[in-house]
Amino acid sequence: MSDLNEGDKVQNSKTAFSALFSEGEWMFVKGENENAVKSFTAALALRPGDKNCLVSRAKCYMKLEQPEKALQDAESTLKGDETFCEGLYIKAEALFLMGEFEFALVFYRRGFDFRPHMFRLGMQKSQEAIANSVGSPSTVELNSEGDLSFLQKEAARVQPITAIQDLTEEERYDSPKTYKNKKTTKQLLGKFYDDKKFLEDLMKDEGLAKGVTASGERVQDIIEGCITSLEKYTEIRSPEKPASLKKKRTVRKFSRSVGLLKQQMV
To answer: How many helices (H) and strands (E) does the chain have?
Structure first.
């Protein structure tokens, strides 16, 4: 009897979730986004972490011009599966709406690898927004092969090393060692290897490197600072360094409070 009651409860919960989710979808179609959020939130109380429901609620937040909340829902959908395209798209859109064009490009690009048709326009508009935000007299065309994950938002660009500080608990020391062996460097940097290569490629683009941000800072200085930070990170990861210098914090998700850099980047 108890098993039967338990089965009824599960079935009732599924039915209630479906009803609330459908109600939220209908409210969204009608443009009643606040009510839709309430329905999706109630549905999530019955089935926490449901990706489709989180995506739907995030879309409502975007319509309500609350991209920070949309970003939180998008990040929740990516836990355990960083290839979930709907979550990547919402995250990129939220970052773009927040004016974080460099970081939006990172996630548009990542999604592009899986569904080009879904992310192509986002990549284009992010690249154009980045080019327009750099006070260079020439038109800047950014290479999409790589990530801008270490170009901090303009307000935080005075401290380009911030992103690396969020990845490690490092003690500062002078002149980071350069690793000549490509395989060794790739091993030590891991997911950051492509970022370093991309930044080095950006340095070869004179039109971009000679640009100046709206705050008057040279783009070349920003990129060089980021590369230096990565080299320090490489040295910290080196087995030749004492364990005390190799302590790493759990990599935090790309969030606004840390310059919206998703440390697993990329």
So the answer is: 12, 0
| Residue at 193 is within a domain | yes
Tell which residue, 145, 178, 173, 179, has the closest CA to residue 161: 173
Residues near 187 by beta carbon (within 8 Å), at least 6 away in sequence: none
Does residue 151 contact residue 223 with C-beta atoms inside 8 Å? yes
pLDDT in tens, 224-251: 777 777 676 666 555 544 433 333 432 3
Single pTM value for the model: 0.51
Asked whether residue 262 is domain-assigned, the answer is yes
**Alpha-carbon span 224 to 199, nearest angstrom:** 8
Size of the chain, expressed as the number of residues it contains:
266
194-228 confidence digits (pLDDT tens): 777 777 777 777 777 677 666 666 777 777 777 77
CA distances from 160 to 61, 219, 227, 238, 251 (A): 30, 11, 9, 22, 17
Structural domains of the chain, count: 1
Looking at the domain assignment, is residue 101 inside a domain? no
Which residues does the chain have with pLDDT short of 70?
1-10, 134-191, 209, 212-217, 230, 232-266
Quickly count: other Cβ atoms within 10 Å of residue 20's Cβ: 21
**Look-up of token digits 């975007």:** 62
Please report, for residues 43, 60, 259, the alpha-carbon distance to residue 21 in angstroms, rounded to integers and kept in the order given: 6, 13, 33
* Three-class secondary structure assignment of 56-89: HHHHHHHHCCCHHHHHHHHHHHCCCCCCCHHHHH
Which domain, by its residues, includes 152? 141-266
